[in-house]
Model the fold of this input.
Amino acid sequence: MTATDVTATAEATRQGAPGLPPREPRSEFGRRHKPELSAGQKQALRLARTLVWPAIVVAILVTQIPFLVTIYYSFQNWNLMRPGSRGFAGFDNYITVFTGGAFLQSLSATVVITGSSIVLSVLFGLGIALLLNRTFVGQGLARTLVITPFLMMPAAAALIWKWSMLDANVGMVNWGLSVLGVDPVQWNTDFPALTVIMVLTWQYTPFMMLILLAGLQSQSKETLEAASVDGAGPIRSFLYMTLPHLRQYIELAVLLGGIMLLQVFDPIAIMTRGTGGTKTLSYLLYERAFVGLEIGEAAAYGVITVLLTIIVASVALRLLFKIFSTEGAKS
Amino acid sequence: MKSYSVKKRMLLSAVAFSSVGVLLAGCSGAGGAATEDGPVSLTLATVNNPQMKDMEELKGAFEEAHPDITVNFVSMEENDLRDAVTKDVATQGGQYDIVTVGSYEVPIWGQNDWLVDLGPLAEADTAYNVDDLLPPVREALTVDDSLYAVPFYGESSFLMYNQEMFAAAGLSMPTNPTWDEVAGFARTLKTDDVAGICLRGKPGWGELFAPLTTVVQTFGGGWFDEDWNATVNSPEFTEAVTFYTDLVKDAGEADPVSTGFTECLNLFSQGNAAMWYDATSAAGPLEADTSAVAGKVGYVHAPVKETDEAGWLWAWNLAIPNTSTKQDAAWEFVSWATSTEYIDLVGTTLGWERVPPGSRTSTYENPDYLEAAAAFAPITKDIMLAVNPTQPGVNPQPWVGIQYVTVPEFQDLGNQVSQNIADVFAGRDTVENVLDKGQELATTVGDAQK
Done:
């Protein structure tokens, strides 16, 4: 939308036109007809445009300068502990990123941990949402209790899992297993990735559940009644009525969950310390910057991660818009 | 048109002025320069250990004696402190007037010219009695005859064992055990509920590799030889890591990758481990009222193989960054907090068992302290005076320091190798394979030193 359109719209609104602004008349060649503006209007318009500039400048400064600085650092050879040896490094840092071997491993760890946590939490979330969608005594209390894990700070959640749940000697999970006659499991040592996935699933199931519950509650009761009158049992009406209705909600849940889980850091730093396939991109970046103190290398990892995220995000966002547009078409 | 461009110019200049104003306001907020003449406010960054908390509690005594100086404590967890202070000092931020620095960083920072040489100040101050500082600690903090920090408290490592369990099994612990003897005891005493020995397995150069490096050194290995050639996949290093990981797998604690200092302290103080090889500073909490094993713990020298002594050496120290504008006032506080006067103050007001240990020889001549810490004070002193930070292992090494290599890249190297050793604990990888990878990483680090 150009600035001229804005004024035309504003003009229309000022004249008290109800609803959408009237369509602009089009010339023979389909080009827009520019409305004539008086000198005073033009001047007001210029002033308005000029007033926008500080905000745009601030927006550019705030969003782009840190990234530009990161790009600059990524071409520097800079270890914090060696102040004398700082200098231009060319593409050395990027070569280290791609030949070091850590990057691809970390990428696959990120995909495995994020992917399985999302799938599991959507499945559990769906199950709990179906249960909570029924009316029963204490429904409100149950809902609040189920949401609690999502409200907990990630670091606190990781500590609880480390000390109370998964501790090899006094943990509740191993105690539960011992009742079933299973030998104690060394969670962090033998199954580090599974440990992190468990914590994340526990924490994100309520989030998925909230979105899916909203979806279930927006489904009209009449449709389900009609289906049951037509002879569909609960399984068939779930598979053929409820699930298609929930599709958009599941897609939304997966997308938002993916964005949040990609940045996961706390359970890895507190429980597994990047061992056994849990070194995700965010943890790797932390290690390069704060353990390795290699600012240049960490910046190069950062730049690559941003590029990857932009690619993933643009694909994901396109999907998101598609979800919304199909919903619009249906109604 | 003309009126428009005048307006535009006015607007632009207004915007420019206001942005400059914002920038200036930001600068004045960050700076806040104070002169040496008026009242001085010092900022001290420190680690949130109990001994440091005591220092904060007692700073009122210092401020009473120095009415023109106030000291503000910024306490952080160890890793956060390391991050925050390294960033501030390396980028010349000048946020702190006094920093708490570990003995690993002091020589590196000193060589980078980041810290004030406290040697001349300490020598000039006769009441300070610089020669009373424990010699090995002082040595670890000195680079080319410059003393870049003074110790607040120091520690070595020793073997702690549960005397009741040993008596019940009819075993007796020698004063200077060997690792082979210890491994035998651990395998005998291991039951389903009790670990034979607790040894750190949590990845991190300061976690796993603090005890493991001392084991490597007493087995005759080391990270580098005298000429900075990496020796990580040498037979001695491999033997030591194999010994350590096998011992933990056979007779150690469950879930070693989760287990660091705190976890072992929990396990041992609840009576769930027969032995524990770790820092001498663990003795304080083990003898406290909350511990289930208080009074039942025996303390002996760190187990050895090829060397006579295998304890490590660590100290938390106070130093003054070169960027501080209040260095005189800072030294006033640093010299007070590390003085014998301060140690007496802790003893008389908070109790003698809370005295910061391992910094001064005179602490171990104080009858009140020796009485309160009778179980572990004499042996701590013996070990701290016996360890040799210039050559802790069998072979000479080109750096000063025991359980670490005093180069900036070591924390990264130690961290990565320790993460790979976690795979050995889990059986996902072999010691040989892991140490070959470590050798590659160490070679790059060593080459940078040549």
Remarks:
- The longest strand of chain A covers residues 76-77.
- The interface with chain B takes residues 43, 46-47, 50-51, 53-54, 57, 79-84, 162, 166-169, 184, 186-190, 192, 271-276, 279, 287, 290-294 of chain A (CB under 8 Å).
